[in-house]
Amino acid sequence: MTQPTPSAQLRAALDLAEWGIPVLPLREGKGPMGNCPACRKNACGGRPNMKTPGRCGCAAPCHAWAAATTDAAVLTSPAWGPAWRQAAAVAYHPGGAGVTVVDLDNPDAVAWARQTLPATRTVATTRGEHWIYLGTMTSRNAVRPGVDIKSLMSYARWLGPGSGSMAPLPDAVRALVVKQPAAVRPVSRPVTVTAPVGGGECRHRSPAYLERGIAMAQQRIEEASDGIHRAVYRAFLAVLSTHGRCGCLTDAHVKRLFTAAQGRGESLRHCEDAWSNAVAALGM
What we know:
The protein is an alpha+beta fold. It has nine helices and eight strands. Strands 4-5-3-7-6 form a five-stranded antiparallel β-sheet. A three-stranded antiparallel β-sheet has the order 1-2-8. A hairpin with a 2-residue loop joins strand 6 (140-144) and strand 7. The longest helix has 16 residues, at 207-222. The chain is elongated and about 70 Å long.
Protein backbone atom coordinates (compact mmCIF):
# COMPACT_ATOMS: atom_id res chain seq x y z
CA MET A 1 0.00 0.00 0.00
CA THR A 2 1.35 3.39 -0.98
CA GLN A 3 2.02 5.63 1.97
CA PRO A 4 0.65 9.20 1.73
CA THR A 5 3.19 11.89 1.01
CA PRO A 6 4.01 13.81 4.21
CA SER A 7 2.79 17.39 4.26
CA ALA A 8 5.29 20.24 4.12
CA GLN A 9 4.60 20.92 7.80
CA LEU A 10 5.26 17.32 8.80
CA ARG A 11 8.48 17.20 6.79
CA ALA A 12 9.65 20.39 8.52
CA ALA A 13 8.67 18.97 11.91
CA LEU A 14 10.64 15.75 11.29
CA ASP A 15 13.71 17.76 10.29
CA LEU A 16 13.49 19.78 13.51
CA ALA A 17 12.94 16.66 15.61
CA GLU A 18 16.17 15.21 14.24
CA TRP A 19 17.94 18.23 15.70
CA GLY A 20 16.39 17.60 19.11
CA ILE A 21 13.75 20.34 18.88
CA PRO A 22 10.32 19.25 20.26
CA VAL A 23 7.61 20.13 17.75
CA LEU A 24 3.83 20.16 17.35
CA PRO A 25 1.33 21.21 14.65
CA LEU A 26 -0.46 24.56 14.67
CA ARG A 27 -3.88 25.16 13.15
CA GLU A 28 -4.89 28.23 11.17
CA GLY A 29 -4.56 31.26 13.39
CA LYS A 30 -1.37 30.00 15.09
CA GLY A 31 -3.26 28.12 17.81
CA PRO A 32 -2.57 24.52 18.90
CA MET A 33 -4.83 21.64 17.96
CA GLY A 34 -7.85 21.07 20.19
CA ASN A 35 -7.66 18.46 22.92
CA CYS A 36 -8.91 14.94 22.32
CA PRO A 37 -12.32 13.94 23.82
CA ALA A 38 -10.67 12.36 26.86
CA CYS A 39 -8.88 15.62 27.69
CA ARG A 40 -11.55 18.14 26.71
CA LYS A 41 -12.37 20.67 29.42
CA ASN A 42 -9.43 19.35 31.46
CA ALA A 43 -11.24 16.06 32.12
CA CYS A 44 -7.91 14.23 32.21
CA GLY A 45 -6.80 16.11 35.32
CA GLY A 46 -4.57 18.80 33.87
CA ARG A 47 -1.66 17.18 32.10
CA PRO A 48 -0.44 20.59 30.83
CA ASN A 49 0.96 21.19 34.32
CA MET A 50 3.92 18.96 33.45
CA LYS A 51 7.30 20.66 33.26
CA THR A 52 8.63 18.79 30.22
CA PRO A 53 7.23 18.27 26.70
CA GLY A 54 6.44 15.03 24.92
CA ARG A 55 4.76 13.27 27.86
CA CYS A 56 1.17 14.26 27.26
CA GLY A 57 0.20 10.58 27.07
CA CYS A 58 -2.53 11.15 24.47
CA ALA A 59 -2.66 9.47 21.10
CA ALA A 60 -3.38 12.79 19.38
CA PRO A 61 -1.57 16.11 19.96
CA CYS A 62 -3.19 17.54 23.08
CA HIS A 63 -2.40 20.25 25.61
CA ALA A 64 -0.45 22.51 23.25
CA TRP A 65 3.22 22.66 24.28
CA ALA A 66 2.95 19.47 26.38
CA ALA A 67 2.41 17.44 23.21
CA ALA A 68 5.63 18.68 21.60
CA THR A 69 7.93 15.76 20.85
CA THR A 70 11.07 14.71 19.02
CA ASP A 71 9.80 11.15 18.52
CA ALA A 72 9.37 10.57 14.77
CA ALA A 73 7.17 7.53 15.44
CA VAL A 74 4.72 9.75 17.33
CA LEU A 75 4.86 12.55 14.77
CA THR A 76 4.06 10.14 11.93
CA SER A 77 1.51 8.04 13.82
CA PRO A 78 -2.03 7.68 12.41
CA ALA A 79 -3.40 9.51 15.45
CA TRP A 80 -1.42 12.62 14.52
CA GLY A 81 -2.30 12.35 10.81
CA PRO A 82 -5.48 14.48 10.92
CA ALA A 83 -3.65 17.20 12.83
CA TRP A 84 -0.88 17.41 10.24
CA ARG A 85 -3.40 17.48 7.40
CA GLN A 86 -5.08 20.47 9.06
CA ALA A 87 -1.84 22.14 10.16
CA ALA A 88 -1.05 25.60 8.85
CA ALA A 89 2.35 25.83 10.56
CA VAL A 90 4.81 24.11 12.89
CA ALA A 91 5.48 25.18 16.46
CA TYR A 92 8.19 24.15 18.90
CA HIS A 93 8.67 24.14 22.64
CA PRO A 94 11.54 26.59 23.34
CA GLY A 95 12.09 25.32 26.88
CA GLY A 96 12.39 21.76 25.60
CA ALA A 97 15.00 22.93 23.13
CA GLY A 98 16.93 24.72 25.86
CA VAL A 99 16.21 28.24 24.63
CA THR A 100 14.11 31.31 25.44
CA VAL A 101 12.28 33.36 22.81
CA VAL A 102 11.73 37.06 23.39
CA ASP A 103 8.76 37.70 21.11
CA LEU A 104 8.83 41.32 19.94
CA ASP A 105 5.45 42.01 18.39
CA ASN A 106 5.92 45.44 16.80
CA PRO A 107 8.61 47.90 15.65
CA ASP A 108 8.54 49.78 18.96
CA ALA A 109 9.27 46.55 20.86
CA VAL A 110 12.12 45.74 18.46
CA ALA A 111 13.59 49.22 18.96
CA TRP A 112 13.39 48.75 22.74
CA ALA A 113 15.20 45.41 22.52
CA ARG A 114 17.98 46.85 20.39
CA GLN A 115 18.57 49.55 22.97
CA THR A 116 18.21 47.33 26.05
CA LEU A 117 19.12 43.68 25.42
CA PRO A 118 22.36 42.05 24.28
CA ALA A 119 22.43 41.02 20.63
CA THR A 120 21.56 37.40 19.89
CA ARG A 121 20.07 35.24 17.15
CA THR A 122 17.05 36.92 15.56
CA VAL A 123 14.19 35.60 13.45
CA ALA A 124 11.91 37.90 11.45
CA THR A 125 8.17 37.55 12.18
CA THR A 126 5.12 39.00 10.47
CA ARG A 127 5.07 42.09 12.71
CA GLY A 128 8.41 42.08 14.53
CA GLU A 129 11.19 39.69 15.56
CA HIS A 130 11.99 36.73 17.78
CA TRP A 131 15.19 37.14 19.78
CA ILE A 132 16.46 33.72 20.86
CA TYR A 133 18.76 33.20 23.84
CA LEU A 134 20.46 30.04 25.11
CA GLY A 135 18.89 29.04 28.42
CA THR A 136 15.41 28.55 29.85
CA MET A 137 13.16 30.48 32.20
CA THR A 138 9.52 31.03 33.19
CA SER A 139 7.26 32.06 30.31
CA ARG A 140 5.00 35.08 30.58
CA ASN A 141 3.05 37.23 28.14
CA ALA A 142 2.89 41.01 28.09
CA VAL A 143 5.94 41.61 30.27
CA ARG A 144 6.00 45.05 28.65
CA PRO A 145 4.15 46.54 25.65
CA GLY A 146 4.54 44.21 22.67
CA VAL A 147 6.88 41.78 24.45
CA ASP A 148 6.18 38.15 25.39
CA ILE A 149 8.59 35.60 26.89
CA LYS A 150 8.28 32.04 25.57
CA SER A 151 10.38 29.31 27.12
CA LEU A 152 9.23 26.67 29.64
CA MET A 153 5.61 25.49 29.33
CA SER A 154 5.04 27.53 26.17
CA TYR A 155 5.31 27.22 22.40
CA ALA A 156 6.52 29.44 19.58
CA ARG A 157 5.92 29.27 15.85
CA TRP A 158 8.89 27.97 13.87
CA LEU A 159 9.85 30.65 11.36
CA GLY A 160 13.33 29.47 10.45
CA PRO A 161 16.75 29.25 12.10
CA GLY A 162 17.32 32.99 12.07
CA SER A 163 20.61 34.81 11.86
CA GLY A 164 23.39 35.71 14.26
CA SER A 165 25.05 33.92 17.15
CA MET A 166 22.93 32.81 20.08
CA ALA A 167 23.90 34.63 23.28
CA PRO A 168 23.42 33.26 26.82
CA LEU A 169 20.12 34.21 28.44
CA PRO A 170 20.83 37.56 30.18
CA ASP A 171 19.58 38.71 33.56
CA ALA A 172 17.83 41.60 31.81
CA VAL A 173 15.43 39.10 30.19
CA ARG A 174 14.94 37.07 33.37
CA ALA A 175 14.04 40.26 35.22
CA LEU A 176 11.16 40.92 32.83
CA VAL A 177 9.01 38.19 34.41
CA VAL A 178 9.60 39.33 37.99
CA LYS A 179 6.44 41.12 39.03
CA GLN A 180 6.99 44.42 40.74
CA PRO A 181 4.52 45.01 43.56
CA ALA A 182 2.13 47.85 42.95
CA ALA A 183 2.53 50.86 45.15
CA VAL A 184 0.49 50.54 48.31
CA ARG A 185 -2.35 52.97 48.18
CA PRO A 186 -2.33 55.41 51.06
CA VAL A 187 -4.88 54.57 53.72
CA SER A 188 -6.90 57.65 54.48
CA ARG A 189 -8.84 56.01 57.30
CA PRO A 190 -8.15 53.19 59.75
CA VAL A 191 -9.12 49.62 58.99
CA THR A 192 -12.57 49.05 60.42
CA VAL A 193 -12.51 45.24 60.55
CA THR A 194 -10.95 43.30 63.37
CA ALA A 195 -9.90 39.75 64.04
CA PRO A 196 -12.67 37.52 65.39
CA VAL A 197 -12.75 37.35 69.18
CA GLY A 198 -12.59 33.57 69.13
CA GLY A 199 -13.60 31.36 71.97
CA GLY A 200 -13.38 28.06 70.14
CA GLU A 201 -10.85 25.34 70.77
CA CYS A 202 -7.39 26.06 69.38
CA ARG A 203 -6.54 23.21 67.05
CA HIS A 204 -2.92 24.07 66.46
CA ARG A 205 -1.59 25.55 69.73
CA SER A 206 1.49 26.73 67.91
CA PRO A 207 2.48 30.33 67.01
CA ALA A 208 4.67 28.88 64.24
CA TYR A 209 1.62 27.24 62.63
CA LEU A 210 -0.27 30.52 62.66
CA GLU A 211 2.73 32.41 61.27
CA ARG A 212 3.06 29.89 58.46
CA GLY A 213 -0.64 30.27 57.64
CA ILE A 214 -0.39 34.07 57.44
CA ALA A 215 2.77 33.87 55.32
CA MET A 216 1.14 31.41 52.92
CA ALA A 217 -1.89 33.68 52.55
CA GLN A 218 0.35 36.67 51.84
CA GLN A 219 2.25 34.66 49.23
CA ARG A 220 -0.98 33.49 47.60
CA ILE A 221 -2.10 37.10 47.24
CA GLU A 222 1.25 38.40 46.03
CA GLU A 223 1.66 35.65 43.40
CA ALA A 224 -1.91 35.65 42.04
CA SER A 225 -1.60 35.90 38.26
CA ASP A 226 -5.13 37.18 37.67
CA GLY A 227 -8.48 37.56 39.41
CA ILE A 228 -6.96 39.46 42.33
CA HIS A 229 -10.37 40.12 43.97
CA ARG A 230 -11.08 36.39 44.06
CA ALA A 231 -7.56 35.56 45.22
CA VAL A 232 -7.79 38.01 48.14
CA TYR A 233 -11.19 36.69 49.23
CA ARG A 234 -10.02 33.07 49.10
CA ALA A 235 -6.87 33.89 51.06
CA PHE A 236 -8.91 35.65 53.75
CA LEU A 237 -11.37 32.75 53.82
CA ALA A 238 -8.57 30.20 54.24
CA VAL A 239 -7.03 32.12 57.15
CA LEU A 240 -10.34 32.64 58.90
CA SER A 241 -11.49 29.04 58.48
CA THR A 242 -8.30 27.76 60.13
CA HIS A 243 -7.42 30.47 62.66
CA GLY A 244 -10.52 32.61 63.10
CA ARG A 245 -12.42 30.70 65.77
CA CYS A 246 -9.85 30.19 68.49
CA GLY A 247 -8.75 33.77 69.21
CA CYS A 248 -5.15 33.40 68.01
CA LEU A 249 -5.70 35.74 65.06
CA THR A 250 -4.90 39.36 65.95
CA ASP A 251 -5.47 42.75 64.34
CA ALA A 252 -1.77 42.78 63.45
CA HIS A 253 -2.31 39.64 61.35
CA VAL A 254 -5.29 41.28 59.62
CA LYS A 255 -3.15 44.32 58.83
CA ARG A 256 -0.47 42.11 57.23
CA LEU A 257 -3.06 40.50 54.97
CA PHE A 258 -4.55 43.88 54.02
CA THR A 259 -1.08 45.24 53.26
CA ALA A 260 -0.40 42.33 50.89
CA ALA A 261 -3.73 42.90 49.14
CA GLN A 262 -3.17 46.64 48.83
CA GLY A 263 0.28 45.91 47.43
CA ARG A 264 -1.51 44.25 44.51
CA GLY A 265 -3.70 47.29 43.96
CA GLU A 266 -6.72 46.40 46.10
CA SER A 267 -8.46 49.33 47.76
CA LEU A 268 -9.08 49.41 51.49
CA ARG A 269 -12.81 49.14 50.82
CA HIS A 270 -12.32 46.00 48.72
CA CYS A 271 -10.20 44.48 51.48
CA GLU A 272 -12.81 45.24 54.12
CA ASP A 273 -15.60 43.87 51.95
CA ALA A 274 -13.65 40.65 51.23
CA TRP A 275 -12.92 40.19 54.95
CA SER A 276 -16.52 40.83 55.98
CA ASN A 277 -17.83 38.45 53.29
CA ALA A 278 -15.43 35.74 54.44
CA VAL A 279 -16.52 36.20 58.07
CA ALA A 280 -20.17 36.00 57.03
CA ALA A 281 -19.59 32.92 54.87
CA LEU A 282 -18.11 31.11 57.86
CA GLY A 283 -20.89 32.24 60.20
CA MET A 284 -18.57 34.09 62.57
